[in-house]
Amino acid sequence: xxxxxxxxxxxxxxxxxxxxxxxxxxxxxxxxxxxxxxxxxxxxxxxxxxxxxxxxxxxxxxxxxxxxxxxxxxxxxxxxxxxxxxxxxxxxxxxxxxxxxxxxxxxxxxxxxxxxxxxxxxxxxxxxxxxxxxxxxxxxxxxxxxxxxxxxxxxxxxxxxxxxxxxxxxxxxxxxxxxxxxxxxxxxxxxxxxxxxxxxxxxxxxxxxxxxxxxxxxxxxxxxxxxxxxxxxxxxxxxxxxxxxxxxxxxxxxxxxxxxxxxxxxxxxxxxxxxxxxxxxxxxxxxxxxxxxxxxxxxxxxxxxxxxxxxxxxxxxxxxxxxxxxxxxxxxxxxxxxxxxxxxxxxxxxxxxxxxxxxxxxxxxxxxxxxxxxxxxxxxxxxxxxxxxxxxxxxxxxxxxxxxxxxxxxxxxxxxxxxxxxxxxxxxxxxxxxxxxxxxxxxxxxxxxxxxxxxxxxxxxx
Length: 462
Hints:
This protein has 462 residues and is an alpha/beta fold. Helices cover 33% and strands 21% of the residues. α4 links the parallel β4 (90-95) and β5.
């Protein structure tokens, strides 16, 4: 599926966007028949309210969308996407007194609202689409790249583990590299041990679908950016097995990998002047006779020893080896993304992307990018006084301290132990929308990628 704006040269119908505050003035400016129709149908400018305006022959010539008041708009992201389902198919353009930011949000909302995941519904006829004509002054290429990257992320997260194991994730990884002329390699199975990725191997060795480390490189000039994404294609919890309900969403445990691939798509699609490196440890955390056990002690790629006190805290293990590998060559910024902890969801819920960094410039740039990319984030602390919590005594590190507090923070501190050199930022995302929302249907969703895209000019000096 390719998100598209309407052809700028094609005819389009107006979608009048009317706030509750501006309703009276709007009605007074309308022809008497239109004013009478809107008044008779009780249109009051409530957020998401829609009225189609018919001509004398019954054909729809325009539409009026309620934009609510400031409080209502603050409570609903991508509010104008609410009306897309009620519009007749065809081309539309925005009319009304919207700011540039409101126009950009509406344009992105219409692109994101067009997403459909129909891989498992073959034969269902494609519905005619509603397409928005891009308002003047907005960057069509950037908005389209954002939506394309998001669609890739959603498709990957939404695909069941039966059809998206480590080998399938590798195929998607290589396909993205091929599309943009990047190079991609994979270290698979026992070669992980031979090439010193012991924790990736330990997590994934129990599955018949071999673990692997995927690497992509693109670009030859400019600052160096490395993205690392957790690619646990399904997480049973290992021998510390999850309950059935806790396993239901575990096809999304590769959401970090899906999100960095979506972000990589945006970067390459826009041709940003940088050198991109993407690392994805792709595994399935399964159960068999050779699965890792609680209280096993692993020696990581970096040489730090790790006591495995919970085999369900596997994401930080595979990321640790990948982060250590990332730091073996210089880069200007290193970013990891993972569906890492339930503690992050308890802290901020499903809609916000928590992130960690000690770099104030990165943090400020990301907050700005979050606003321009309509991609909310929330800063969490690398709280160094909690460092002793992840030190079990018998080994250098504990992958799952039984402390009961600050689980997202202690996981982030664990990862930070494997980073030396580059400026670093870590995201503990959810990657899932629990119920249908405007421009975000229930299911997989990207978090943090658009915010990062907006932050890169400052972070990397582009």
